[in-house]
Write a structure and sequence with these properties.
The chain has 97 residues and is of the alpha/beta class. The chain is built from four helices and three strands; from the N terminus they run H-E-H-E-H-H-E.
């Protein structure tokens, strides 16, 4: 995700880890084992976060089927909220609109 490397330098994508065909559970376990936060448009991860807490933390993008540029804008505008999510042990999931 080079578009966001300036504010999220250690971010990655499921494709880079050959996870695009894996189950939600396998992705969740990978994120947990590798200290990743899951950024998703999939409600299943938000629900899993509500059930199990964190780690991993979840950022749930509520923008629908948006173009990449819109997703990038959303992640940039939410940087402070995302940092708060990551640093606060009481927060497990953040919804960004």
């Amino acid at each position: 995700m080079t578009r966001l490397a300036d504010i999220y330098p250690n971010s990655s994508h499921v494709q880079f880890h050959e996870l695009e065909e894996k189950t939600d559970t396998e992705i969740w376990e990978f994120a947990l084992a590798n200290d990743f936060c899951i950024v998703t448009q999939d409600v299943d991860f938000a629900e899993r976060s509500r059930l199990y807490g964190s780690p991993p933390k979840v950022v749930w993008l509520r923008c629908g089927n948006a173009p990449t540029s819109q997703v990038e804008t959303l992640l940039r505008s939410g940087v402070d909220a995302i940092q708060e999510l990551l640093s606060n042990p009481n927060f497990h999931c953040l919804e960004l609109y």
